Amino acid sequence: MASRVPLQLVLNRIKSLRCFGTVTEGIASSTASSRHLIGLEHDYSAHNYHPVPVVFSHGKGSTIWDPEGNKYLDFLAAYSAVNQGHCHPKIMKALIEQAQTLTLSSRAFYNDKFPVFAEYLTKLFGYDMVLPMNTGAEGVETALKLARKWGYEKKRIPKDQAIIVSCCGCFHGRTMGAISMSCDNDATRGFWPLLPGQLKVDFGDEAALKKVFEEKGEHIAGFLFEPIQGEAGVIIPPDGYLKAVRELCSKHNILMIADEIQSGIARSGRMLACDWEGVRPDVVILGKALGGGVIPVSAVLADKDVMLCIQPGEHGSTFRGNPLASAVGIASLQVIQDEKLAERSAEMGEELRQLLTKTQQRFPEIVMEIRGKGLFNAVELTSKSLFPATAYDLCIKLKERGILAKPTHNATIRLTPPLSISLDEIREGAKAFHDVLEHDLPKLVKEKPKPASPKARDTCDRCGRELYG
Hints:
Blueprint: H1 5-16, H2 34-44, E1 58-60, E2 63-65, E3 71-74, H3 77-80, H4 89-99, H5 114-125, E4 129-133, H6 136-153, E5 163-167, H7 176-179, H8 185-188, E6 198-201, H9 206-216, E7 220-225, H10 241-251, E8 255-259, E9 283-286, E10 298-302, H11 304-307, H12 323-338, H13 341-362, E11 367-373, E12 376-381, H14 383-386, H15 391-400, E13 403-404, E14 406-407, E15 412-415, H16 423-447
Parallel strand pairs: 3-13, 5-6, 5-7, 7-8, 8-9
Antiparallel strand pairs: 1-2, 2-3, 4-10, 9-10, 11-12, 12-15, 14-15
């Protein structure tokens, strides 16, 4: 019974909260309430997430409705999986038409959709070949295997000595391979032993990367990085860093592997975040928005010299390259191109940051930094000014005002709405954030019980550094 107490507090809060969204006639579900559905998930699903207590029942564009018909603006877009907007009609049309024809062949046979998708995707991004997968994490695992295989076959790294370099603060998924590169104690503790063959450098530190390449370059197969770190808090590297990475990887014959799962497909205001510096990685990993928010689709892009290191029987997945995913992938990319969502992301992102900067100027003791590119943005808050409240508490207050966002760490709020969002909706979201700081935060700081002593900052198990506040 004790384990149910936190849930009960959440459910009571949902019942008593005033919702700032509007109830839309005909949208409300008659089958189950938000309270009941949250209770069911708590009872029957693993507790590996800490959601904001709102239930998605219906979505269109940037708008979400819960079972009661309350309306919200989505400022997370499923971590960039819904760049095109919820239930985009062109993507839904492709999904429905293909679902009525053929959904799965497995790669034991050919199908009539994947070859078309493969040609479209590779020509769009300028690579020779694609290896399709389903989820982003699978894409990362694929790139890791591909880099190791290339390292042994082409670079002639001695057997079992291949190294992958990645960055402190990185997030590449929750598989064993991905967490073996992580600085997130929650992701690694209790899952040891981690996979060997991993080295870390600071993100954005050209000198550190140069040093490790000079010392270990003969054994390094690849450098895996996010051009903009998402889970770390939308961390943008210094100007010129991506070009320096390209030069160092070329000099030391190391694969430059860009994880563009979240930063790619127009999120940053370019088709790929690497396009901001005009660099071409050796390997690109795509996911999330590649499936248009309706089905998992991921892909690894590379040229033949790299991709053909993997031969039949060495890697695969039953569902990869399936006709349904291929049809959706084509439609998802066409929407990005036809609606010029990369350009729109750049324009709307600039407007959002300008509005948020005005709020920062109004509350300089609370808002430490506004950062982002395109509609890939974060607000970093001052922990001392928030205490005992957290960024999660502010997201709850944003939810009450009809805006859905999610924190990353205790003092950072990520703001990544669908790229189709309107200017009026951008303004509505920015105003809600201002109002939360002006009206809600003072009450939170005053009324929220303070712990007996502030929680000590954790340190990373692998590098010993203080982790994000």
